[in-house]
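## Example record

The block below lists the input lines for one assembly entry, exactly as stored, with component labels intact.
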Amino acid sequence: MTLRTPYLLFIGDAPDQLAAKTAAGIAYWRPDISKGQMRLPGCRADLGIPDMTIEEAAKAGVKTVIVGTTNRGGVLGEGWEKLLVEAIELGMDLASGLHHKLAEIPALRNAAARHGRQIADVRHPTREFAVGNGIKRAGKRLLTVGTDCSIGKMYTALALEREMRSRGIKADFRATGQTGIFIAGDGVSIDAVVSDFVSGAVEWLCPEHDADHWDLVEGQGSLFHASYAGVTLGLIHGAQPDALVVCHEPTRPHMRGLPGYKLPDLKTCIARNIEAAQLTNPAVRCVGLSINTSGLDAAAAQDYLRRTEDELVLPCVDPVRVGVGAIVDRLAAD
Amino acid sequence: MTLRTPYLLFIGDAPDQLAAKTAAGIAYWRPDISKGQMRLPGCRADLGIPDMTIEEAAKAGVKTVIVGTTNRGGVLGEGWEKLLVEAIELGMDLASGLHHKLAEIPALRNAAARHGRQIADVRHPTREFAVGNGIKRAGKRLLTVGTDCSIGKMYTALALEREMRSRGIKADFRATGQTGIFIAGDGVSIDAVVSDFVSGAVEWLCPEHDADHWDLVEGQGSLFHASYAGVTLGLIHGAQPDALVVCHEPTRPHMRGLPGYKLPDLKTCIARNIEAAQLTNPAVRCVGLSINTSGLDAAAAQDYLRRTEDELVLPCVDPVRVGVGAIVDRLAAD
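Predicted structure tokens for the full assembly:
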């Protein structure tokens, strides 16, 4: 499933900025393909890009309307269906990250069939994958892993892509979650794949490539998350990474959604991820840490990064505050 | 999905005993519910139980016809459909372990609807599961793990159930694969669950129980298998095991289906499985090894078991040759 660009980012009546975080991620990482936002009365989020109606978007050359808002229950708000049918009638595709499939709403499905348009429910894989084969493949791969879920793995992979491309290094972000898929224009929502085929799906996602090309694979979950560690392990094995970057947030009190579970310490986290990744690539190494220090003031953040760097003898950066240049230096130095 | 018993084991024209191994497992572990076998011309397998026609099975009180043969492509052989429709018309349910769903064959689906009968495609989960929550639950659980796939994890769990029950210990086998599901009459085909929900599905499969009750959970895959390790890890975390039994086959040249991958040594295998299981149960311990020594002669087998036992200081048995009594002794001693 490849999404046609540019996009109109539909954020409905998102009650706050967080409810529109998928769309905000797209607008931040792909301003070039984010033509406009569409907001409905009551919306309290703002992506900082032009407001457009469905008609204006069609005139501006938009090819896909992204339903990029999360609402409780994941269903469409009142009146949204009519707007999305209008988008289809004006020649645009739809793409959604909602749990409930847009393609299963009769009015949308019928309109899409009538007008030959695509509805991409990116949370739901549309193809079958083979079982992973573990065969060594050419090209280089970096995977972001983490102490927990929602801790900066997508952001870090995208920041690495930007930094590496700016230095003339061949690099492509590979998306494994819904926001990443909208940003990349394709990918696999890996946690929605049947468990037997997770590593095979990742092998498909980042196949053999030129020897000097880097795939920057978006990590998911954490080996230390009691709900999702299996997804993470299949992803590690399928990615066959040459390099790992460990993501962390130092002020988080417990694993996301699991009050009884503490985050692992960084040394253990690095060791376990390396141990797991060695199965399909014995030469894997950790090349740095990406820390979300937004919970610390500037001085505390700087202190944390410096101490961690000294302790682990690895580049340790906040991708927002200081960028990922030091990690790319390390990669390039090897 | 609970299967009604007793069964007729339909093995079609299975070209050899291996092609009927699912049915053979049912007949071996559940002779009490395996009323008969049905074989077609050309069948070269024999389960050692009475041959019956569909009609005879119905008269004998059979409640479910198990399509327990695997054929290339997983489709039904010629003429099978007619026989299975007849079974439905005579009041029996169908259950299948084939990849292709029986319930999607119109003639079978329609017959089942007409007669109010059930078609259970046990490879395909029919319910939704919650995400794993990792909350500590009462009751005891033992999980079989292994150096590789297809290495005795189901057999060992069933042998433990038989031995423990014979000693008056409350114990239930919990099935995670198709053959196990036929044997137990219910369960979850865990490798067919969407990856996000694997640990949650296992939490559902072996829920809270009496403090002195053991669930004997059938393991799947291996932490060391590049294709399936993610399934295994989710299963470990969801099972929250108090005890692990490690299964192994000492003459296997490489990981099943992966010629480039060697089996891990037993010490490493134990350590990694314990390490993984400690996330949801810090008190987990390995209580023994279950070795398939069928590739060794009697003297070599005895020697292997003795040496391994000395080296690892754990009960080390072949469940077929010597039984699992020593492992249950160890469990009971703690």
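Chain A has two domains: 7-121, 140-333. Chain A has eleven helices and eleven strands.
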